[in-house]
Amino acid sequence: MKNKKVFIKKILSGMLCAAIAIGSVLVLPQFELKAEAGKNHKCSYSWKTLSKGSAYSDLYEIQSCDICGEIRMRNYMRSEDFVKENLKKQIKEARKDWVVVSDLGFYHTLHDDVFVWLTERYDVTLVVTYEYEGTYYQTTFPAGADYSEFLQDDVKFYGMPGLNGKCGIISEAGGKVGSDFPEVVTLEGAEALYSHIKMAPQQGTVYSSYGDNHTINKTLLTELSARNDVTAVVIYEYEGMNYKTTFPAGADYTELLNEGAQFYGMLGLNGRCGIVTEIVY
Ligand SMILES: [Zn+2]
């Protein structure tokens, strides 16, 4: 009986050795290649974005060696998770009294968590745009709103088109969304603003964050002239101060368009053609 056990042990360890031997043969050449590459250089790693996260694409980044391509770290996030994480970051890190603008693509539901973040940052206004059943929507969550009603019920996800009028939320439908729309709205900054102006609801207000860019292209005035019912609000930073420039609906930009300049500094536009530039404290 004892001998039989030893015999089985021997067979098992023999099989294990064989498996390791086969494994080594399969694995070794790769090790050798890496070791060889390692001889010639010290790996220099940098992050590379293979796919930029957005409402339409997953985020995929790798940290790899610029010389031999060896991957040290990976960062992957589904677009759904990216959208939520990005929204969280935007709200939590927003400047005081800021308007956070986010394009949600095909996602038209919000999780309870968003109302928790907005309650913590009650000075922030959130404006989201999205597509729902082929129609462009813009939903505005105004600063100072009380969302305790949403946080106390059992509902976890809220369809945004249906939130209109609740807790001061304004959900407006805009134009029909073309088949090329997702590509258009993922464009950043000014290009995205032009698309939002084109798709805006009747008499709607469109918001955009320009970051540290405090100039506008003449194209903005042309787009606004074509959609005379739309108000555009651009928020930006200039020399450490936060500003908000409002291009009101119904304004006549002929005077500015006739000047022939391609770019305008927004601070200098205050008072011209009804444009208002304010400091946001
Ligand atoms: Zn390397």
Summarize the structure.
By secondary structure, this protein is α+β, with helices and mostly antiparallel strands. The protein has helices at residues 2-40, 79-92, 112-120, 148-152, 181-185, 189-199, 218-226, 254-257; strands at 45-51, 59-65, 71-77, 99-103, 109-111, 125-132, 135-141, 157-159, 170-176, 205-211, 215-217, 231-238, 241-247, 263-265, 276-280.
3D architecture notes:
This protein has helices at residues 2-40, 79-92, 112-120, 148-152, 181-185, 189-199, 218-226, 254-257, and strands at 45-51, 59-65, 71-77, 99-103, 109-111, 125-132, 135-141, 157-159, 170-176, 205-211, 215-217, 231-238, 241-247, 263-265, 276-280. With 281 residues, the protein is of the alpha+beta class. The chain has two domains: 2-78, no CATH class; 80-280, no CATH class. The strands form five sheets. A four-stranded mixed sheet has the order 4-6-7-9, sandwiched between helices. The protein has a four-stranded mixed sheet with strand order 10-12-13-15, covered by helices on one side. A three-stranded antiparallel sheet has the order 1-2-3. Strand 12 (231-238) and strand 13 form a beta hairpin. The N and C termini lie far apart (86 Å). Mean pLDDT is 85; it is low at 1-32. The structure holds zinc ion.
